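Example for tutorial group B:
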């Protein structure tokens, strides 16, 4: 796991969904919001 301080600074006061290799999947204001966005993103990437 790498240092994700820069990512957290960029998205202060937001929820962030990350992949296992620390790539940002999505950002949102609530945990529920990013969970929904992340699910859609993962499903879309699996269908490609």
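The residue assignment follows.
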């Amino acid at each position: 796991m790498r240092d994700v301080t820069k990512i957290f600074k960029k998205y202060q006061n937001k929820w962030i969904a990350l992949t296992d290799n620390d790539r940002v999947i999505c950002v949102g204001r609530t945990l529920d919001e990013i969970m929904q966005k992340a699910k859609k993103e993962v499903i879309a990437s699996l269908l490609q």
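The helical segments are 5-10, 31-47. Compare this with the pattern of hydrophobic and polar residues in the output above.
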